[in-house]
Amino acid sequence: MAAAPKSTAKPLYALSAANNLMGLFRMDKARRLIIAGNWKSNKTNTEAVALVTDLIRDLSTVKEVDVVVCPAFTALSDVSRLVLESNIRLGAQNLSDAGYGAFTGEIAPGMLRELSVRYVVLGHSERRQYQNESDALVAKKAANAHANNLIPIVCVGETLAEREAGITERVVETQVRGSLAGLTAEQVEATVLAYEPVWAIGTGKTASSAQAQEVHAFIRKVLASMHGEAVAKRVRIQYGGSVKGSNARELLGQPDIDGALVGGASLEAKNFVEIIRNAI
Ligand code: PGA
Questions:
Q1: DSSP state of 4
Q2: Average pLDDT of 20-41?
Q3: Using CA atoms, how far apart are residues 34 and 154, in angstroms rounded to an integer?
Q4: Is the CB of 205 under 6 A from ligand 1?
Q5: Contacts of 252 (CB under 8 A, 6+ apart)
Q6: 279 within 8 A of 65, measured Cβ to Cβ
Q7: Under 8 Å CB-to-CB from 267, ≥6 apart: which residues?
Q8: pLDDT at 81 over 50
Q9: Cα 35 to ligand 1 centre (Å)
Q10: pTM
Q11: What are the start-end ranges of the E strands in the chain?
Q12: Which atom number of ligand 1 is nearest to the Cα of residue 241?
């Protein structure tokens, strides 16, 4: 019997170094980037279908980053069918802290699972502000997500007044500890965090890459003190707040920024695609 041919596969690091030299991957990241479009309360089902159809076409060759779209609940079913065979993953924008039952207006995890929803945005500053969501409620929802095989994208971030008062770190630490309270180390490791300074959301004002990196590194320090260095190193932390094609590369090039949560610029295929192209 002929001997099995020796594997010519190169170790991954060598591959990525070679690719970097060739300029194929401009970013050599410690964690796989995750770029999510949060469509918020925009797009009817028909409009959502049109948008995701364009994204599927334009992003079909992208393998280097995780791409997620988070349509409104009313569009999840149709968008789910369309992305099923694509490299785009589906996220929802909220989740009940309970299961099925007499909870009018709530969405139970099983309803999302049936639609192949993978991610769920929790504790977005708009929900914290307009629906009075507390860290404790976000933590309950995050636990519910994990218990049902959904990956929470947990958002934190300071307001302008808090930044100007010099309490950004205190605010963000309280949110991170409170919103992840009760999760196991394994669950925290599988959680995606999103640092979104409230003053940068929808304002066109982006945190500078240095400002963002500083808070991301701080969040990782908080995670390390909660669950140890190894866990903290594996958690992906997205930046959100007026991310667009022109600032994506600079932001995503920071060592502790592992992706983006994109609002306004995710509503047009061309803009969202530009962010992703600039990230790889
Ligand atoms: P923006 O929103 O990109 O429109 O600033 C970001 C977000 O709220 O997730």
A1: P
A2: 76
A3: 13
A4: no
A5: 27, 33, 239, 259, 260, 278, 279
A6: yes
A7: 37, 39, 42, 43, 51
A8: yes
A9: 12
A10: 0.90
A11: 34-38, 66-70, 88-92, 119-122, 151-156, 192-195, 236-240, 259-262
A12: 5
- For residue range 1-19, what is the model confidence (pLDDT) as tens digits? 444 443 333 333 333 343 3
Selecting among 126, 196, 216, 227, the annotated active-site residue is 196
pLDDT digits (tens, 9 = 90+) for 159-172: 999 999 999 999 99
Is position 229 annotated as part of the catalytic site? Answer: no
Residues comprising the chain, all counted:
280
Asked whether the beta carbons of 212 and 195 are under 8 A apart, the reply is yes
Token representation of residue 3: 């001997």
Taking alpha carbons only, the member of 138, 258, 161, 252 closest to residue 206 is: 252
Distance CA 60, CA 44 (A): 24
The tokens for 233 are 């190193």
Q: Tell me the two tokens of residue 148.
A: 């049902």
